């Protein structure tokens, strides 16, 4: 159940922001805090629209019941075209339950050029998309969104919704410049642009069912040994309708300071596969992949983990810490571990060493099939 936030309610949530700052924010909803009923699907297909590499020589394989198929030539019918790889992630998720089908587009890569190019080559059908999900507020996960909408909005459902983990997704991000105390701009997701494209944003701080076939974890409890590895910094506040407000201000943030990013509203997207268990997709996993899986288990009441998929942000992990985290992943007893994006080659190698029969390394364009 989702409740639309009226103007007065949003003002209260925004700690007394000026009324003019809310121009274009009418398309905002807050997910209900009521417990969810986790849906079950018979089959899930994940097409990797964008990742950082493409393997021309990838061979089809089945690992622990999960089918991994290559994209083919990666050129479609025109030899002059090729799949674009970039730092970022985008997944086209198709599910089926009996005769009922659903499609979710999860994250949108760094640029619309790459996303639109790969959609055309891979011949996925954007008009089938029932819901959009953004995992967190990093440009390499939302950068292609508005360009995608500019191309395909009229072919999409008129009431299409974007499920975001919370208000923090719209904060201004900055990257360290290499000079102490100096930063470079890393952008911010602009909900005014979403409203202009007739997209309702649902803030999912609590677990939320998406398109009747998937669910999000909501806020991820940090209970494991994992820690947030260095990444971006964040600046809170709204100016001219752009930016974010949040209720978790620290003293430093109230003083307008730029602070290390804690990714308070990063969430994972999950599916429960009949007779298999959970598929947990952590697009970047800044808050910890083990934490993300544990949250999915707690939310759903389902212990069995079929697959752990996505970016795990362990590329920059020290060797000893990496070994420890892979061992913790092993304790979850997943059938397969599927690292993408920011997981890092170091993670893939360590996972293959500790879990030699349970690792699939996908590529831009490849397809992963879970269930019958």
Automatic annotation (TrEMBL):
SUPFAM superfamilies: Metallo-hydrolase/oxidoreductase (SSF56281). InterPro entries: DHPS-like_MBL-fold (IPR041712), Metallo-B-lactamas (IPR001279), Metallo-beta-lactamase_dom (IPR052926), RibonucZ/Hydroxyglut_hydro (IPR036866), TAT_signal (IPR006311), TAT_signal_bac_arc (IPR019546). Residues 100-160 form the Metallo-beta-lactamase domain. PANTHER family: METALLO-BETA-LACTAMASE SUPERFAMILY PROTEIN, METALLO-BETA-LACTAMASE SUPERFAMILY PROTEIN (AFU_ORTHOLOGUE AFUA_3G07630). This is Ribonuclease BN. It comes from Methylobacterium jeotgali.
